[in-house]
DNA sequence: CTGTTAGCGCCTTCAC
DNA sequence: GTGAAGGCGCTAACAG
């Protein structure tokens, strides 16, 4: 059984109130008694029970974080930066992964609410109109990252549309006259939150190429790619994530297609592992660690001072590699 | 303010006890009343307060997990598998990162103890003899992964010595007659926990090569490598982690040294991203996801049934690539 | 300056 | 079947 304030009080022949004053530098207390109590607490190995404290204070100093998974370095970098920032501000991380499942996500949210997290940061797969009001019902600060939920929920991200437009323009400026655009399915709209994907697609659509673009929107994009004559025209393959681009690179290498002389490839995210990839992938930097730090900052201020969290757009950047 | 059992009780004109019976299927209760109470609970949007429940039950259903960071895919895969397994068993993850700092690790442990985690899984940087008794003082199940703390703390891992011995033997069998062995500093012993590293080094030392091996043990291994005539003899560079091996590959590519015809390279861990790397890295599989799942399994049984957690050795495997 | 006490929300015994 | 009540450990308001 762990040592409690009562144990210390008994051991020192004082009241629990006095022990509390000694331990937490609250109000007036006889310095000698304070010494004695602190010494005894140390001797007994007292560790405050934060569960009890949380119950009393109605605050757990915990931020719930819900993301898809940690297989994509994008998210592990995010969690890494958030944990660091959270620790600095004396918050804990309650982490849950949805694996892109909407029901799992809802369960995660509910479970976190039951655990009385002080705030919620999520990269959501949910999209239904009523999801955002459902979230607001819980009356704690919520921040969405990377995938907007609604205008009601603060959203921190890059400008996905602009970023993909810039990427597409960069491809065009490089002299490519046709693009094969690879994205996860865009038709999932009524079942999944694909806000960012749609934004990117719109951005892509704003740039005109000489020859008609080919859109592949499928999890099975490599198989789709096989049905296309890639070498026709001066073609670039533009992917909505680096991971997709890496798979494409692998496919092209297998087919002995030269990059970038026969076909160009461009990714999106600029994940760290790219430094080990050859050829160096041209991509768009997504400053996910910065976004994570900002999210923790904003949400902790919202928790502590009731500040409203502002939407925020972080600057992206074209990263020039050798794959285009 | 969130809805409590008392609110429901008042709304239904029953006692809190009865609400509890309805909500948790406890004991006898008038079916009609139960219906009414459940309906009311739903209507009011009742969500049990787990903090209060935890305080009462003395169990938080939370497992504290402490690892170095998430930059190495090794750890993000680990967390990923643990989160999945934990969710399945209705545990939450309290995640903290140490960034290889011993004091940070201790603070993380203390903070988790204060939060009353039911168990602790850690990949430790601490090594001092008294660390393991300090850990045991808290009287909750503890499991160490990947880096052994002491014989007193259950340890789940591969047999690092055997694994590196097998790797070295594989290199020798491939016809290499000299090895450059790259490891983080082994001299940190009095400051850091380098159990696994030492085991690997011992395993490596058990195999005799024709020419004397060169040991590089430094964070600055690339610079060290520059001072060596790599092309002398038939040399293989054996690294204690894939990440190191990837850096070495980058260095060799930059120097236009052909792999494996001029020099061989071997890694350790078999992280997922290797599938995007060329040439395919020969490495040792470290079944970290399996280890994570086993750790959660064992610790949850220890929490629930008081089972003693057994040490466990998981099978490694040589992964044959094209870099050797 | 110090002790007492009433909860935070839930769970559990005990009595009716 | 149901209600009343105490307590998990900590905090804070109130007495003294």
Q: Measure the end-to-end span of chain A.
A: 64 Å
CATH top level class name of the largest domain in chain A? Alpha Beta
Give the mean pLDDT of chain A.
94
Q: Could you list the spans of chain A in which at least 5 consecutive residues all have pLDDT below 50? A: none
The CATH homologous superfamily of the largest domain in chain A is called Response regulator
Residues in helices of chain A, as a percent range: 40-55%
Strand percentage of chain A lies at 15-25%
CATH architecture of the largest domain in chain A: 3-Layer(aba) Sandwich
- Topology order of chain A in helix (H) and strand (E) letters: HHHHEHEHEHEEHEHEHEHEEHEE
Find the biggest chain interface: A-B, 48 and 48 residues
Structural class of the secondary elements of chain A? alpha/beta
Let me know the number of strands of chain A: 12
Strand order of the largest sheet of chain A: 2-1-3-4-5-11
CATH topology of the largest domain in chain A: Rossmann fold
| Integer count of domains of chain A | 3
DSSP summary: helix tally of chain A: 12
Large-scale geometry of chain A? elongated
What Rg of chain A is obtained from the alpha carbons, in whole angstroms? 26 Å
Question: What's the story with the biggest beta sheet of chain A?
Answer: 6 strands, parallel
Oligomer: homodimer
Domain HTH lacI-type (chains A, B): 3-57
Protein name (chains A, B): LacI family DNA-binding transcriptional regulator
Keywords (chains A, B): DNA-binding, Transcription, Transcription regulation
GO molecular function (chains A, B): DNA-binding transcription factor activity; transcription cis-regulatory region binding
């Amino acid at each position: 059984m762990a040592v409690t304030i009562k144990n210390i009080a008994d051991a020192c022949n004082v009241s629990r109130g006095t022990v509390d004053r000694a331990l937490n530098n609250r109000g007036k207390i006889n310095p000698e008694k304070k010494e004695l109590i602190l010494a005894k607490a140390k001797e007994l190995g007292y560790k405050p029970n934060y569960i009890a404290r949380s119950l009393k204070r109605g605050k757990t100093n915990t931020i719930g974080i819900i993301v898809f998974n940690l297989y994509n370095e994008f998210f592990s970098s995010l969690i890494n930066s958030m944990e660091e920032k959270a620790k600095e501000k004396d918050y804990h991380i309650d982490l849950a992964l949805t694996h892109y499942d909407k029901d799992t996500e809802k369960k995660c949210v509910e479970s976190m609410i039951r655990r009385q997290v002080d705030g919620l940061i999520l990269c959501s797969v949910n999209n239904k109109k009523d999801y955002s009001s459902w979230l607001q019902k819980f009356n704690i600060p919520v921040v969405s990252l990377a995938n907007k939920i609604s205008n009601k929920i603060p959203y921190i991200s890059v400008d996905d549309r602009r970023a993909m437009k810039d990427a597409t323009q960069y491809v065009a400026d490089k002299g490519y006259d046709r693009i094969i655009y690879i994205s996860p399915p865009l038709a999932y709209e009524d079942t999944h939150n694909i806000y960012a994907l749609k934004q990117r697609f719109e951005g892509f659509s704003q740039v005109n190429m000489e020859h008609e673009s080919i859109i592949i929107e499928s999890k099975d994009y490599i198989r789709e790619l096989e049905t296309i004559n890639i070498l026709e025209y001066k073609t670039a393959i533009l992917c909505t994530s680096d991971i997709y681009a890496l798979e494409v690179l692998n496919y092209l290498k297998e087919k002995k297609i030269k990059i970038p002389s026969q076909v160009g490839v461009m990714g999106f995210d600029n994940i760290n592992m790219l430094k080990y990839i050859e050829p160096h992938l041209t991509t768009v930097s997504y400053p996910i660690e910065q976004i994570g730090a900002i999210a923790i900052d904003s949400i902790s201020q919202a928790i502590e001072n009731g500040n409203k969290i502002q939407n925020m757009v972080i600057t992206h950047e074209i990263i020039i590699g050798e794959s285009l």
